Amino acid sequence: MTNFVFIYRDMGIEFVILQDKDKFSEYQVLPEVYNEEAYHGNKSIYIVSSEGYRYKVSLNTPRYGLWYVDGPKWTEFCNRSLNEDVQMLHFVEESEDCFYVTGYNNDGKEVVGYDGNISTYRRFKTTVLPYPHLPQVIPGELLPGLKELDEVTIEANGILYESYVRHITYGGHNVYRLLGETWNKLVEDIGLEAGTTCVLTKESGNMLWFDAFNNDGSLITQPVFKGAATLRKRQLKLDFFEQSK
After folding, report:
1. Is residue 221, in this structure, part of any structural domain at all?
2. How far apart are CA 179 and CA 163, in angstroms?
3. Residue 146: CB partners within 8 Å, gap ≥ 6?
4. How many domains does the chain have?
5. Are 29 and 68 part of one and the same domain?
6. What percentage of the chain has pLDDT greater than the value 90?
7. Do both 110 and 132 map to the same domain?
């Protein structure tokens, strides 16, 4: 397979953080990368859900030196778009003080909407495996319509990695397994270690974006604007979300 290089599109920061399940919908502490790169001195930020709703949530006094979000709008967002089983939250900065936010279960699958319902399955969280011979798999739901043996393209740091995939049953789940050395080359090119958190985002039928994150939640790879909230969404009047309760 040939790797292609092109100029990537600059975008704001992204970060991931483990959800504090004991404080679900009450508050969520944000990682240090938010303090350092995205805090603009305001008392609130906007959270955009997968449904396209925008919530003006309170940004509160640092807790242990870190800012946290809370308030009735944060609670409303959590109850509508997440659940207590979400293991990790993913924040994508779309503009100053505005973040698209989604979450992943322990199996890495994206969870949004009531009861985990999702109209468009777009993302999958995984980790770099400790042994290169172990299969790297992608959920079948992320790649509907592919043939039993097909090709995918993964964009990482401005490089396009092409790989064959084969549909298999793995651990009782229908998945696509990456074939050949493409995944190992991607991991080696970026210099990722075993256990590194990675997110694959679907751009189109067989095109995926790749992000990798440090242990502190900050991005390792170059950010690429993914048009997170530019799909067809249902947006209520903004003043509805800015009302105080």
Report:
1. no
2. 7
3. 152, 165, 167, 176, 205, 206
4. 2
5. yes
6. 55
7. no
Residue of 124, 168, 171, 135 lying closest to 150 (CA atoms):
168
Q: Taking a C-beta distance cutoff of 8 angstroms, is the pair 140, 150 a contact?
A: no
Domain annotation covers residue 220 = no
Q: What is the CATH number for 209? A: 2.40.330.10
Per residue in 53-98, pLDDT tens? 889 999 998 777 899 999 999 999 999 888 888 999 999 998 889 9
Task: Tell if the pTM clears 0.90, that is, is over it.
Answer: no
Amino acid at 191: G
Residue 24 domain flag? yes
pLDDT single digits (tens) 132-156 = 778 799 998 888 889 999 999 999 9
Domain housing 169: 4-9+120-213
By mean pLDDT, which of 67-71, 157-161, 237-241 is the weakest?
Answer: 237-241
- Same structural domain, 131 and 75: no
Residue type, 72: P
What are the residues whose beta carbons fall under 8 Å from the beta carbon of 109, sequence distance 6 or more? 121, 124, 125, 139, 141
